[in-house]
Amino acid sequence: MSAPLTNPRPGLRVRPVRRAGGLRATALGTALAALLVPALSACGSDTSSATGNATLKWASSYFPAHWDPVVSGSGAQFRQLALVYASLTRTDDEGKAVPDLAESWEYNDKGDRITFKLRPGQKFSDGEPIDAAAVKAAIERAQKQKNSALFGDLTSIGKVEANGLEATLNLTQVDYQIPQLLGQRVLQIASPKAAENPKKLDQNPVGAGPFVVEQLVPGTKAVLKKNPDYWDAENIHIDNVELVSAPDASTVVSGLRTGVYNFADIDPSQADAAKKAGLDVFVQPGFNAANLSLNVNKAPFDNDKVVEAVRHAVNREEFVQKLTFGYGEATDQPFPKGYVAYDPKSENAYPYDPAKAKKLLAEAGHKPGDLKLNLVIPSEDPQAEIVQSQLAAVGITVTIKIDKNWATPFFAKDLTFSLYGTTGRDSAAQTLTAHFGPNGPLNLSTPYEPAGFEEAVAKVRQTPLDSPDYAETLQAATRTGLQSKALVFTYASPNLFAKTKSVSALPKNPGHIDWTGVKVSGAN
């Protein structure tokens, strides 16, 4: 599941256009589903078709349920939808916002108005022109469509003006995060003509990305071909894509080994088997973070000592070892170490200390075993069993309750105790507000927020991404957000993939799968 960066500029002069390198997001640093392709993909088959075209055969456990990007939102499926859709910006290997459909952008001096200039001569795969009117339609649809999963990400955007190839966004607040925000996670742009019928678009995607869907079997398989009209087509070396919903995790490695697939996202439990089979196994950088979600508006979490006890009862390393087989990492923040938003001053603020947890519970008036909690989750999850065990060790009895309609009470903030995982946002400010803001979708304790949080995030938005004060300002906002009593972060699951030797290395773009420059050779 998913959830979601700014000293004001001096003077009143008009500022130059901020191009790809101008909006520096600060480098991440060094740390930063069941169908087999039929007979034509038989064991040991060539990765090229009979005509010699390079074919990527991707088995994914995140096959999109929806192909309308407004409905699909910014969860893990955005990576698959990015085969079809392009955005105003995209993210490079340092986490920077760089040009995509827009070749440049410029803020006014105040920072409450930004104009994107689109590349000339672009068109969607249905022939419709890619112009400012299409951008305006995409933003307004994401804000207003009843089943939109993106409207909460676009609150900084007011009226959109369209003038030829220039789309001007009038903002509701000073916000230098917009180029980071309007990338592949939040604004994948569909043809406005196709989007007139959102229901049809949902299973017949029409975009301007590197590939075009030729065949789609809902929930099972998509066959795509290279889009010759994609603005960066010369750097797309894959001619065809066969995207299938991954079968049982234990069979994916066999499918890769025999040539049924040549690329797959895999479960950590299968990593060793994939390595032994001679496959390339790698972790793509990301922003994944899991947490315990507490509702401080309900007992027993309305008592600060109980909240603090739960914090100290959590052994993050157990999550890493048992759930990620060592490929993930422990985290007490919604950002990975080395990322500009990660706050070193907040690291390990609540270390694992079960004795202290027991003491705090006693101070709160709870004897061992008398505090009972229901942990409500949408489906079976070994993560829940670890939580149950760790809290039992300090005297809290947890009963795991599965509610297939979990999302309704969670987002209505009716639950007391639950789990959540996020894939983050390219805009760190959006990630912070999603978790800690008074209306944040991942804040189970709405309208609660930590003191000073809104002011801290506003200061981030008001600071240009290339300001020397940006990192310090952003980390201060993270520090303020982490004072929240509503979330206890546990671990970061890996974006783990395996591929055959026939597929070349992928760009290390954090949180994304970028096929630019990737080649598929003619044999496994």
| Domain module tally | 2
Question: Mind summarizing the main beta sheet?
Answer: 7 strands, mixed
Helical residues, percent:
10-25%
Shape-level CATH architecture of the largest domain? Roll
Number of strands: 20
Structural class label: alpha+beta
Strand order of the largest sheet: 8-9-10-1-11-20-12
C-alpha Rg (nearest Å): 23 Å
CATH fold assignment of the largest domain: Dipeptide-binding Protein, domain 3
Explained architecture:
This protein has helices spanning 69-72, 78-81, 132-144, 178-181, 198-201, 249-257, 271-276, 304-313, 316-324, 354-363, 382-392, 407-411, 428-436, 453-461, 470-481; strands at 55-60, 89-91, 97-99, 102-107, 113-118, 157-163, 166-171, 211-217, 221-226, 240-245, 263-265, 280-284, 289-294, 329-330, 371-377, 396-402, 417-422, 487-489, 491-492, 495-499. It has a seven-stranded mixed beta sheet with strand order 8-9-10-1-11-20-12. Strands 4-5-7-6 form a four-stranded antiparallel beta sheet, covered by helices on one side. A three-stranded antiparallel beta sheet has the order 17-13-18, covered by helices on one side. It is globular and about 70 Å long. α8 packs antiparallel against α10 (354-363). The protein folds into two domains: 56-216 and 225-230, Dipeptide-binding Protein, Domain 1 (Dipeptide-binding Protein, domain 1, Alpha-Beta Complex); 286-493, Roll (Dipeptide-binding Protein, domain 3). The two termini are 33 Å apart. The chain is of the alpha+beta class and 524 residues long.
